[in-house]
Specification:
There is one protein chain. It contains three helices and ten strands; from the N terminus they run βαβαβββαβββββ. The strands form two sheets. A five-stranded mixed β-sheet has the order 3-2-1-9-10, with helices on one face. Helix 2 links the parallel strand 2 and strand 3. The longest helix has 10 residues. It is globular and about 35 Å long.
Length: 157
Amino acid sequence: MWIGVIADTEGELHPRALEVFEGMDFILHCGGIGDPSILLELSNVAPTSGVVGAGDTAAEYEPLKSILFQKFSDVPIFVTHDIGSPRKPYQTVLDVLKDMEPKALLFGKTRQPFSAAIEKRLWFNPGSASGGNGEYPATVGILEIDGQAVRGEIIEL
């Protein structure tokens, strides 16, 4: 199974993101959406869900919440916008991870792409699809789920 992962579009969907996500089984947005029409554009490529970020008004993005826990091919995935940092996550994130035991944790906010296995779990931030305010290039991510294994790849737009 292939999942496109995007974050921090902030109202601008890079045209190449849609190309990268062609053929995906699903797309997850890790918050910082900026404009509800972005979710519609993504859903024209593949089924789409995700979470809201700090600047996203929940009412505009109903039924999205601040966290999402979903199984894909029987592999549990946790999505939220702000985790603190992978090396020192917020206690609330640690509590959720202990209770739910996902194979991958997807997040946004930092605009910095990140992909690492920490304690047998993939921590994955696709970076910012609208660019990192000049600090980082515009990027998205792809997850491959094969059996119980999850692999992430960052793709520069």
